[in-house]
Amino acid sequence: MTANDIIPELTNGEFEKFTKEGTVLIDFFAEWCMPCVMMGPILEDLSEEFKEKVKIGKVNIEDNQDLASKFGVSSIPNFVLFKDGQVVEQIIGAMNQEDLGNVLRDHL
C-alpha cells in the first residue's frame, strides 16, 4: 500500500469539498522535496491514529500552484489545518510524529 492509497492527493476541484467539514490536515508537498518525502510515513501513521477524527490529504504544489499561492505556501513541507473549511493553523517544515500529533490533538 502506498501513501497515495492511504492519503489522497487532492486537485483544485476536490480540495474545497475535502476541507469543508471537520478537522482536516493538508500536506502541501513536492516530489523533489526530501523533507516532504520523509513526512510521508509519519502522515500515514497519523491518519491511522486519528482515523475517525482528522482527515489528511496532500496537495502537490507543482500541479496545484493556485492552491499553494492561495494559502501562502512558499516553503515546503507546509501543513495547513482546517476546521470546517477555515484555516486554524499552518505549520512550516518537517516535524516528528509526536509533535504533529500534538498539534492535531490541540484542535480536536
Separate helix tally: 5
Q: Might you state the CATH topology name?
A: Glutaredoxin
> Which spans have pLDDT < 50 for at least 5 consecutive residues?
none
Percent of residues in beta strands: 25-35%
Q: Biggest β-sheet: count, sense, barrel?
A: 4 strands, mixed
Spatial order of strands in the largest sheet: 2-1-3-4
The coarse silhouette is globular
Whole-number count of domains: 1
User: Average pLDDT value?
Assistant: 94
Span from first to last CA? 28 Å
- The CATH H-level homologous superfamily: Glutaredoxin
Structure, explained:
The chain is of the alpha+beta class. The chain has one domain (26-106): 3-Layer(aba) Sandwich (Glutaredoxin), CATH 3.40.30.10. The protein has helices at residues 3-6, 12-19, 34-49, 65-70, 97-106, and strands at 23-29, 54-60, 78-83, 86-92. A four-stranded mixed beta sheet has the order 2-1-3-4. The chain is globular and about 30 Å long. The model has no long low-confidence stretch (mean pLDDT 94).
Key descriptive features of the protein:
108 residues, alpha+beta, 4-stranded mixed β-sheet, 5 helices
